[in-house]
Amino acid sequence: MTTATPANSPLGASGPRHLSFTTSDPEAGIEVLERVYAIRQIEIDRTTPFRMSQAVRGVEGLHLEQARLQGAPTGALVDATDIVRIGQVYDGGLAFTDHTHTRPGRGPFLFPVRPYACRWDELGLLSLSLDRTAVQDHAAALLGREGFQLRFHSGNPVSAAMAQYLARLITALGRDQLDSEAMSQPLLRQEAFRSAATAVLHTFPSTFLDQPPQPADSDRVPGGVRRAIAHMEEHLSDPLTLAELADAARMSPRGLQAAFARHLDTTPMNHLRSLRLAAAHTELVASDPAAGATVAAIAARWGFPHPGRFAAEYRAAYGVPPKTTLQR
């Protein structure tokens, strides 16, 4: 048995966006595990054949990781305090061995957001990792509480329904988004992170779910809604967050959401989406397919990563497929 104590270098903003790696060399495998999972100490039985494969896809602050580890049971100390990581075990076993011996099941489950010890045996693991500071900032924006501190109470989902929703989202990220050219678009990168972070915040017990919603200030609602819409129209092609819109409206994010629901029967982000759909329509009308314009490129430019879903949304709004508009 050999113990390696490498430098702590998790895969974060400065790490690779894409990685595909297979090896039967324990030393090479340990080096990759250090980078991806912030492992600072690992114990591995070198008398047993070792084999691992590791894939990572993603963008800054959001990564999807898939690992297959074969060989003797292996233990590790992990220090990923700057990462919110969601796991799904599809083969073998994983246990957290500090404090209490806990087996998280198949998942999705939340890895401890603190230094922890774990042990695995013939493990197949799919995980989604988000930058912890960015998740906390997103939670603070949703709550409208500057200085909000995010702490998770448990790694178990609050309900089976939320667990299923998060699992489907992780599958969709891996299949349709994080490995696609669409992620070169800033709007789509932001939307992918927001969707994942929001799902995580609503799936696992935390100080976020402990907070009551803030009431809207009814005296300022009409003006706030108008200011938010004006900001959307002025920055339609830029990545926008609920926090930015609330700041422009001079309201809390929760208050702005309530105001849009009360006066427009929608949400701020859905209203923004409708404005971008209208902008995409305008570009489709003005574009020439003979000059290389495509529905997919125009849709992506306005924040719609899935051409099929864009086509359905466009047809519902304008009565014809977007391709028809482009070819007129």
UniProtKB/TrEMBL annotation:
InterPro entries: AraC_XylS_family_regulators (IPR050204), Homeodomain-like_sf (IPR009057), HTH_AraC (IPR018060)
Pfam families: HTH_18 (PF12833)
Example of a GO MF term: sequence-specific DNA binding
Segments for region (Disordered): 1-23
HTH araC/xylS-type domain ranges (all copies): 226-328
Claim: Coiled coil is one of the keywords in the record: no
SMART domains: HTH_ARAC
UniProt KW keywords: DNA-binding, Transcription, Transcription regulation
Protein name: Helix-turn-helix domain-containing protein
Species, as recorded: Kocuria sediminis
